Amino acid sequence: MRKTQITIDVELDENHVPENITWNAQDGGIEKQDTKATMISVWDDKTREALRIDLWTKEMPVDQMKMFIHQILISLGSTYQRATGEEDVAQWMEEIAEEFAVKSAIK
């Protein structure tokens, strides 16, 4: 069995707030790539719940965080469609993402 690894390194200030975040994905040719935010979700099959880690640096501008969340919402609809084949629900999720874009004043 082949294994691969994706890592995220987080530098914290004295109050444990992220100052720098870098990530690595050797198979994707990514090494010490800077980022201002990351959101990771994993599924716990035993408890049947999503576990999340949401991190962003002090330098992440609010307008970019809004765009980041908007793009995540769009991608969730796409992922949902690929996983379930339910095009109508995926379309509805995309509509929610667009409503978010309008309400958050990024569109």
Describe the fold and architecture.
- With 107 residues, this protein is of the alpha+beta class.
- Helix content is 37%, strand content 35%.
- The protein has 2 helices and 5 strands, in the order βββββαα.
- The protein has helices at residues 62-84, 87-103; strands at 6-12, 18-25, 30-35, 37-44, 49-56.
- The strands form 2 sheets. It has a 3-stranded antiparallel β-sheet, with no helix packed on it. Strands 4-5 form a two-stranded antiparallel ribbon.
- It is globular, with a radius of gyration of 16 Å.
Structural class: alpha+beta
| Strand line-up of the largest beta sheet | 1-2-3
Extract low-pLDDT stretches: none
What is the mean pLDDT? 97
Record field, number of beta strands: 5
Helix content: 25-40%
Distance between the termini: 45 Å
Shape by Cα distribution: globular
What profile does the largest beta sheet have? 3 strands, antiparallel
Rg estimate, integer Å: 16 Å
Describe the structure in brief.
By secondary structure, the chain is an alpha+beta fold.
